[in-house]
Amino acid sequence: MSIEVRNLNKRFGPTVVCDDISIDIPSGELVALLGPSGSGKTTLLRIIAGLEVPDSGSVLFHGEDATRTDVRERQVGFVFQHYALFAHMTIFENVAFGLRVRPKATRPSEAEIRSKVTALLKLVQLDWIADRFPHQLSGGQRQRIALARALAVEPKVLLLDEPFGALDAKVRKELRRWLRRLHDEVHVTSVFVTHDQEEAMEVADRIVVMNQGRVEQDGPPDQVYDHPASPFVLQFLGDVNLFHGRFGAGRGDAKVSGEVSYVRPHELAILAAPAEGSLPVTLSQALTVGPNTRVEFKRVDDGSYIDVELPRSEFHALRERFPLDPGATVHLLPRRVTRFAQESEADPAAMI
Ligand SMILES: Nc1ncnc2c1ncn2[C@@H]1O[C@H](COP(=O)(O)OP(=O)(O)OP(=O)(O)O)[C@@H](O)[C@H]1O
To answer: Considering the entire predicted model, what is its pTM?
Structure first.
């Protein structure tokens, strides 16, 4: 089932939460709504679900206007951050619940319920805990059951609001991959709210980047990362160094251009000698965490800091060729620069 959102507006009192939002979600896609806290992601999801009514604009399901359709008729499945399973019911009964409460005419037989719930528990790889109760499960297992329960009623659309938000980093990572694989099997149109850019990049077919109630960019993860439409998107999708004026080859016209140059920490090469477009810096500190080394440099000209990130093996190899200790002077040359006009620079207050 495809979803189209057309010129959607919603305010709460004076706060504009959805500001003329239009997005297209083709059938079977997994789309992430990504943005900082308060950017309107949850409100947009709730409007798609039918839990919230927009002030204007429309939501179309499979080309048909569903804006005023009741939540129960939209056939959406939900998974929330704190999805309360029924504590007094076994895992099996939790998943079966949506089928058992159907009106008699459409309710499957007991045998059908059994086979369906068993298949779903297998799908989320938890068939071995069917007889347990929710309190006997880990947080990650509970969210997988929440997903099985949402899928049991064969929703046309699956809506997930920070489903892994309450879990620790390692479990989150596992579940992201698991969700991706699950979606490849089930192919139900899914909208996934997150404020975690890594999660969005890893899980989604497409990312809708939101900021202050507006869509900043909408595209596949690589496109959004490699070709950000605005400084906000660039900065929200990962760490970046900011240089006023033109940095890199041809930086002579810095004052005329009125540009801001953005370079990600892993896009800077460390050189022993100056090259065309390089910048002299002194090493302030180097920190190795896991496979990467993060080096903080101080600009010789204005004293501001620049972060460089490289594989630790590469850092050690460089260190054998020239000194890379605190105080050493080296030169940084960008491999890739993204430039935006000065006036379109993102408002730092809008950042988290
Ligand atoms: N029912 C409501 N009444 C009044 N204001 C609301 C209501 N729901 C949301 N808001 C406000 O709307 C804005 C957007 O909230 P929303 O929850 O959609 O953002 P979000 O991007 O999902 O943020 P978060 O990641 O923190 O949940 C916030 O400023 C919030 O305070």
So the answer is: 0.86
